[in-house]
Amino acid sequence: MAAANAAATHDRLADVTVESVAEDAGVSPRTFFNYFRSKEDAILGLRPAVVDEALAASFTVAPDDDLVEKVAFLLLEVYRTVNGSQIPHPLHDELMDRHPELARRRVRYIDDVQTLTVGIAASALSESPWWTSTRPARSADDTAVLLVAVAGAILRTAMRPVVTRAGVTESDAADALRAACSLFREVTHP
Fold it and tell me: Global pTM?
């Protein structure tokens, strides 16, 4: 919050320093860098994307799976590792408007999340006896890229109204994503 508040009161990000943010937060600059790679990351509350080994190992592909929905929920889980923000949505929007250069940083994190998710999905596809026997001509990597792209669009659609509400729980996010996946199935398989 100290970084977000500093960015909200300055017209230029260059005027916000790690030292001043750390001082306002009551930590040393060294401690600051234990949590964030840069002041931009702190302003947005972003952390490097990580995938828990158990999550990656548990992601498998079976014949009855709705792969788009399954990948959408995987994306949601990986996104949760990136977003450590306690910044209220209106302040986040204000910061993005005030400092458009933050958008590039956010896009980089989104790309990291998608890359990790593609890797997990491609691995699960290539290790699935069902997938490899029924779709031998399909590239697991190409399929995973497409699944993540479609699942990402559904996730963005589902989360847009959720992130603007106060007091949203993980259950609310899951319910919204489930509903968006259901709508996608209805639209694509009438």
Answer: 0.84
